[in-house]
Automatic annotation (TrEMBL):
Protein name per Swiss-Prot or TrEMBL: N-ethylmaleimide reductase
Family, per entry: Belongs to the NADH:flavin oxidoreductase/NADH oxidase family.
Organism: Pseudacidovorax intermedius
GO CC annotation: cytosol
Pfam families: Oxidored_FMN
Length: 369
């Protein structure tokens, strides 16, 4: 018998009650990078998901690119996350945190000492970031022009990913971590030739452009164990002005290298993040990607994401996806698992309260009675 969305599944060390995942969702409600008590409530409300993935969380101040996103690097920040994992575990859920370095998708005003953000090359992304002024008013602003990282700085990036992973698991009590290598942030910038024009060992060939991602992943695996590590990839998304001239061989190489690492899961955004599942002029074969991962010995769960409905998700699981991540539906439906199971109507998310603010549009969406 084929599996259903509602059947349990093992993903590395993670024993999951069902195949429904809360996708990472940026909410900008953590001033000073500290998750507040209300954030614990928000995640605990959603704890019936097989797995919760936190909003992207900066591994360092340099890795931050938006106002009021959380961090994984200071005592107050880690204490804030402890409250979250405790609340989720008390509610019977499983939660991993998403390790994030934005690279060039940042603004001088968000960086240590107001310096420029860092990137593989000094090429600005034509995209916007989200700032909040002293009066608490949010606005979107163009990202700043980055400076290229020196070769000597790269071991520090690798070390910072591993340190954040250790903080997450050992100090905060997370069940694992997800490496954010998608959506045009630092690791995706290194991967793709639209952002990476380096001429050293980290630019040029596919092997070179994948090097930083793989070094970071191996270091995180060494820090917490592969069975607690997932990774998120977005081969063709145009998010944050990212592009690669030939993504299929690039990502086939990446997953072949990930195969032997014993990861818990590989999380793939199919198409344009939060948009169409097909991107014009950027064809991609996701089945071939999965096959390349399995052929390389990859035993992690295969997690799919982007625009999934109940029907599409059931179909994906029947065709062999192990996990399906839901983004926007999870903002508005804390009891999404039950609603999908009962085929009940879904609440509509309020886009005005996605980024910033308090309880409204965060912890006040109704559950079924
Ligand atoms: C929306 C707004 C800000 C950041 C991503 C972390 O796209 C994000 C993000 C999404 O992965």
């Amino acid at each position: 018998m084929s599996s259903s969305l509602f059947d349990p599944v093992q993903a590395g060390d993670l024993q999951l009650a069902n195949r429904i995942v809360m996708a990472p969702l940026t909410r900008n409600r953590s001033p000073n990078a500290v998750p507040k008590p209300i954030t614990a409530t928000y995640y605990a409300q959603r704890a019936t998901a097989g797995l919760l993935i936190t909003e992207a969380t900066a591994i360092s101040h340099q890795g931050q690119g938006y106002a009021d996103v959380p961090g994984l690097y200071g005592t107050e920040q880690l204490d804030g996350w402890k409250r979250v994992t405790q609340a989720v575990h008390e509610a019977g859920g499983k939660i991993v945190t998403q390790l994030w370095h934005v690279g060039r998708v940042s603004h001088d005003s968000l960086q240590p000492d107001g310096r420029p953000p860092v990137a593989p090359s000094a090429i600005a992304a034509k995209t916007k970031t989200y700032l909040i002024d002293a009066q608490g008013n949010g606005s979107f602003a163009p990202t700043s022009t980055p400076r290229a990282l020196d070769l000597e700085e790269l071991p520090g990036i690798v070390h910072t990913f591993a340190a954040a992973a250790r903080n997450a698991v050992e100090t905060c009590g997370f069940d694992g971590v997800e490496i954010h290598a998608a959506n045009g942030y630092l690791l995706d910038q290194f991967l793709k030739d639209g952002a990476n024009q380096r001429t050293d060992d980290y630019g040029g060939s596919i092997e070179n452009r994948a090097r930083l991602l793989l070094e970071c992943t191996r270091a995180v695996v060494d820090a917490v164990g592969g069975g607690k590590v997932g990774i998120r990839l977005s081969p063709v998304t145009p998010a944050n002005d990212i592009v690669d001239s030939d993504p299929q061989p690039l990502f086939d190489h990446v997953v072949r290298q990930l195969g032997p690492l014993g990861l818990a899961y590989v999380h793939v955004i199919e198409g344009a993040t939060g948009g169409p599942r097909e991107v014009e002029g950027r064809p991609f074969d996701y089945e071939a990607l999965k096959k390349a991962y399995r052929e390389a010995g990859g035993k992690g769960a295969w997690m799919v994401n982007n625009g999934y409905t109940r029907e599409l998700a059931e179909e994906a699981v029947k065709k062999g996806a192990d996990l399906v991540a839901f983004g926007r539906p999870y903002i508005a439906n804390p009891d999404l698992v039950r609603r999908l199971k009962e085929n009940a109507p879904l609440n509509t998310p309020d886009t005005k309260t996605f980024y910033g603010g308090g309880e409204k549009g965060y912890t006040d969406y109704p559950t079924l009675s």
